[in-house]
Amino acid sequence: MTTLKRRLADRELPVTRRLTLLATLALTATATVSLSGCGGADDSADKSGDRASTADSGAERSASPSRSASEATGRPRLDLPSDLSYTFDWPKTGDKEKDAVLADSEQSIQAVDLAIVHQDALDHAYLSYYEGEAAAGTQKFIQNYVDHKASITGAYRFYDPDLAVNEDGTASLSYCEDQGKAFVKYLPDKVKKTRVTSDSYVMYHTSLKQNDKGVWEVREILSQIGSAKCQP
């Protein structure tokens, strides 16, 4: 496994990342990555975010509703701020099991970003979707944002899914991410703008397994920044 390097501000910071925001990465307990600035090269100057943030601190979280929902379904409620948006260009397959993998994968991606917004490396929501090495690596990735008082803002797009569900109860899902319109936001509201480059496009490879509550958990995750397959 190799490591992913991303730029935060003008420094390279050793940390681990959700194969979000978000080089090649392996999110494991020993993986080292950089806090992703989302997108590409830095612009010449920082600019204030032009979207209003509704979650600049952990105090604004909605932990109680999330935990209440998870008790019944294993899937926490995700209350994301209005300055984050997601597009998943992976239509339903018509196969009940495959569509469940895709749905839980969407939730797992957003749950990691919610933990960053909450500034909590042990946020309940993402821990409902990650297990083992993937959970350990994701915790370190989120903690890097917390340590630098940084959050995220902007729009993410996910596309070109390649999904297989195996007879042993596991699944593999590969997909692309466009981070060109997503940015690091230093709290409370200083956005670090970046230009779109080839590094704004990332490919992810995940391995999942259904838990006893029926949730497809991410067990392993790898990413390749600047993937040729994901380029527009």
Provide a brief overview of the structure.
The chain is built from four helices and twelve strands.
Q: What's the arrangement of secondary structure elements?
A:
Blueprint: E1 7-8, E2 11-12, E3 14-15, E4 24-26, E5 33-34, E6 47-48, H1 63-73, E7 84-89, H2 96-118, H3 124-127, H4 132-147, E8 150-165, E9 170-186, E10 190-192, E11 201-210, E12 216-225
Helix pairs in contact: 2-4
Name a few traits of the molecule:
alpha+beta; globular; eight-stranded mixed sheet; two-stranded antiparallel ribbon; 232 residues; disordered N terminus; 12 strands
Helix content: 10-25%
Unreliable runs: 1-37, 40-70
- Percent of residues in β-strands: 25-35%
**Number of contiguous helices:** 4
The oligomeric state is: single chain
Structural class: alpha+beta
Report the end-to-end length measured between terminal Cα atoms.
26 Å
* Whole-number mean pLDDT: 75
Mass-distribution shape: globular
The count of DSSP E runs of length 2 or more, i.e. the number of strands, is 12
Q: Major β-sheet, in short? A: 8 strands, mixed
Order of helices and strands: EEEEEEHEHHHEEEEE
Rg, Å, rounded? 16 Å
Question: Can you walk me through this structure?
Answer:
It is a single chain. By secondary structure, the chain is α+β, with helices and mostly antiparallel strands. It contains 4 helices and 12 strands. The chain has helices spanning 63-73, 96-118, 124-127, 132-147, and strands at 7-8, 11-12, 14-15, 24-26, 33-34, 47-48, 84-89, 150-165, 170-186, 190-192, 201-210, 216-225. Strands 4, 6, 7, 8, 9, 10, 11 and 12 form an 8-stranded mixed sheet that branches. β9 (170-186) and β10 (190-192) form a beta hairpin. α2 (96-118) runs parallel beside α4 (132-147). It is globular. It starts with 6 loop residues before the first strand and ends in a 7-residue tail after the last strand.
